What we know:
Blueprint: H1 2-5, H2 27-37, E1 46-47, E2 60-65, E3 74-81, E4 94-98, E5 102-105, E6 113-122, E7 125-126, E8 133-136, E9 143-144, E10 150-151, E11 155-161, E12 170-178, E13 187-194, E14 198-202, E15 208-217, E16 220-221, E17 228-231, E18 248-250, E19 257-259, E20 305-310, E21 326-331
Antiparallel strand pairs: 1-2, 2-5, 3-4, 3-6, 6-7, 6-8, 9-11, 10-11, 11-14, 12-13, 12-15, 15-16, 15-17, 18-19, 20-21
Amino acid sequence: LEKFLKKEVNLKLSTHPDFEERAIDFSEVEQLMNSINTIPAPCAPVINHQAPNAATGTSLRVCWGLFSDDTVECYQLCYKPVSNERHGDEQAEHTLKVKETYCTISNLLPNTQYEFWVSASNASGMSPPSERAVYVTAPSPPIIKSNKIRSCENAALVCWESRDVNPVDSYTVELSKLTDEENGDIITESIVGIPNCEALIHLQPAQSYRICVKALNLGGSSERSEPVLIHTTGTYFCLNEDTAHPLLAILDDGFTIACDELENPECDLPVYDNSFTRCIGILGSLIPFPGKHYWEVEAEEDTEYRIGVAFENTPRHGYLGANNSSWCMRHIITPSR
Length: 337
């Protein structure tokens, strides 16, 4: 080493003259640093159960949340209608991109169950989907059967039908007593928790009422039905078409009957199980109220008829008033009067 150091050494580097101007490649270092700072993909969100009265007949409000502090850029909400059919899983799924942890979905079918699930996503990826939750839209407004309404001076029996295929939880009847003044106040009462499609309502005599019905389920309440007016000034009932003799026809108002003039009333006509076969008669609707009742009947002057009251099971093969289950007054025409 001592001899070597005393020698003069001439070293030549075989390199390019622009060595100092070359840029150093830090790409591997950047990748390493980015891998350290990358946020993880979020965990699965938790979808909430349906809140009461959070739906209308055509819309639903769905909410969810996170149990962690994950960074979330947006959510993906998926839903489809629930079907009990075998191929229900093949129904179309709808997907929405949502920024918040809630969403209102519109253009849905009334009183229909929908299945919802949601996923969260950020720059690193998408979370697993949440558990599925079933929501239901509010029902459609019921339809009051005007021709089935029966009333007297102190009560009314109101019937209606649902417009939905799926059953509802209960019904609410709203009644408003109309005052004599043109712009008077309206006193409103509600009867809630009605399980079926009829209600016997106690009213005050000689009053006018406007009655509406709403259907309810877990999603909420439907809109009000079309109102009907009831006047408690007498007994209101319609004719029962099922009991009519084949020669009788009921007009659209539900009160008026017309009879075909045939020489042989007992001719070969189609007869239903509950209709009169011998007497050209018809029964009215059952009266569900005890007490005193009256009817006003208009008849053509030259018509022979019987009018009275009868039990529901009065024989259909006999004449009204000629048995122990009916009582009638008879109007006959003689040559003198």
